[in-house]
């Protein structure tokens, strides 16, 4: 045991009436909902980068957190792992996620980075064996170091492309060795800041080729997990090539990868793209590329990605409604890509932020399950489109313009508008909360 979380016991479920802030009110891991436990539905994961690598800085000020594991040595990287696995145990989460740069010291070159990663992966493997923790996904940080200032796969320098591809391989190897269930590609700088110095066609082809290489390596190694792309529209670049789910799907179709790659959707990124979280989830479901989610929230008064812990149960109910409509998670899960506010300095803050997020997710999922089981919302949706279930309507879709015109004339079609009943349905959703 370390002394960072001294005095904090494992978080237990005590029910909605508890006044103990170090307890779950809604997340009972063993509670069965729609034939599965909440643990298996939600598949919670802690993000290594925000919880253990972020120093508390923002664009206007530097580090505010003082953590005993901060530093670029292997000893401190292992100490960080000790603290991390202790927190995983306190929370009772089954999964974690990481970038390579989160877990290993930065070396002087690629070879040293790889050695450092391999050493910490061996350390992780032992801790995972000891605790039963699992890896939801691994990924490569191809955005923080200054070498990636113009992108990784989309970089104008072929040496950066090569370095990035080699780094991805080492991170895929690490993910495979640790039994990871997915591998994520997040192109933090795969975009442009100005078209004045950008060849969009070339950069897009480079990104496509990199993804083809990743998929090829998946099959060469026999990796059974999913390859996931995480859409994001902007920030820090002006425009990114993986703007939203629909844009990613078009990209995948262009390179013939729509059956090979799924999406990891973040709530905060959906908002930045001008969408709701449930919109992006529904789009992925309809296109057949839903994979996993990064759960957080944005501050709606800020125009950037604030990565706050989730607490809006009505929003989360609509999000998990789409997850359940997609059949739930297979290899994916609910990863807390969320960070403390830079004034939240205490170890207790880190624990309670996750407790609150896990409770809010559980409450949202249970409301979503009640909506699914009751069926009233789907019944109303089906009724709105029921006219299309007739043979007459289906014939319209296989006719041509001349035929449709003749149909309208012959049947004296003069349609009148019908209510969409939005407010009724909003009231219906609120009745489950």
UniProtKB/TrEMBL annotation:
Major localization listed first in the record, in broad terms: cytoplasm
Description of how the protein assembles with itself and partners: Homotetramer.
Top EC class for this record: isomerase
Reaction(s) the record says it catalyses: alpha-D-xylose = alpha-D-xylulofuranose
PANTHER family: PTHR48408, XYLOSE ISOMERASE
Annotated compartments: Cytoplasm
SUPFAM superfamilies associated with the record: Xylose isomerase-like
Named cofactor requirement(s): Mg(2+)
Cofactor binding description: Binds 2 magnesium ions per subunit.
Protein name: Xylose isomerase
Gene Ontology biological process: D-xylose metabolic process
One Gene Ontology MF term: xylose isomerase activity
Gene3D superfamilies: Divalent-metal-dependent TIM barrel enzymes
Binding sites annotated in the UniProt record for Mg(2+) 1: 230, 266, 294, 337
Gene Ontology CC annotation, any one: cytoplasm
Enzyme nomenclature, EC number: 5.3.1.5
Keywords: Carbohydrate metabolism, Cytoplasm, Isomerase, Magnesium, Metal-binding, Xylose metabolism
Annotated stretches, region: Disordered: 411-433
Taxonomic lineage: Bacteria, Pseudomonadati, Pseudomonadota, Alphaproteobacteria, Rhodobacterales
Protein family according to the UniProt entry: Belongs to the xylose isomerase family.
UniProt key word Cytoplasm: yes
Recorded coiled-coil stretches: none
Residues the record marks as active site: 99, 102
Superkingdom assignment: Bacteria
Binding site for Mg(2+) 2: 266, 269, 305, 307
